[in-house]
Amino acid sequence: MSVMVRNNVRITGRPDGRPMVFAHGFGCDQNMWRLVAPAFEDEYRIVLFDYVGSGDSDLSAYSPERYSSLQGYAQDVLDICAELDLSDAVFVGHSVSAMIGALAAIREPARFGALVMVGPSPRYIDDESYVGGFSAADIEELLESLDSNYLGWSSAMAPVIMGNPDRPELGTELTNSFCRTDPDIAKRFATVTFMSDNRADLSRVPVRSLILQCSDDVIAPVEVGKYVHENIPGSELVLMRATGHCPNLSAPEETISAIKAFL
Predict the structure, then answer these.
(1) In what side-by-side order are the strands of the sheet with 208-215?
(2) Residues forming the active site
């Protein structure tokens, strides 16, 4: 199967421009970048895709074994890079994709020239002096709730994750995105995401990195963004005015400005 079909890869922008790869988070797809990616089309070769199991990817390519860790998703990224012969790419990863991008860059550094991490978290569960934002019991309860009633969980959690209660249409969009995802695959991806611990990988990130940290983010609190910044050598941290976990939807202009300033 073609990687282009498998991952529903779409290319826009300048054919001869520096590659810029946008990667979506859990329960989402490439459509989540529609307010951000076009701002870079004049200068960059834009690559959009869906992880296997998400969006309009080929669900038949999903393997519980391959995607039992974030490395399987990093392999999706590397497969796309190989197929398109990308080098020196700017990788823009939202949420769990920030860590997926870090793993991909560690494995094949020549493919990447910069990482932009939007709301990253290397570990969601608190651990001794580390603040992840959730207790082990919180995550266990979250995964049990997701397992027993995925659609109900999506309707309850998506608006909380999105934040911005004064703009309910944003929460509705994220809810609908979650509900379009195959429930069994979503449950597995959630477990892989929320049980991951990539703290030891941060010091090995080999490229320039920007951390975009939202205020009032229930998924990745400010302490997490600061931790990522302190542990990735030479990284830059931008504390955004945007609230919630999805500034690519709630504050696209601020997101675009921060990325352009970094690049």
Answers:
(1) 10-13, 44-48, 18-23, 89-94, 112-118, 208-215, 236-243
(2) 95, 217, 245
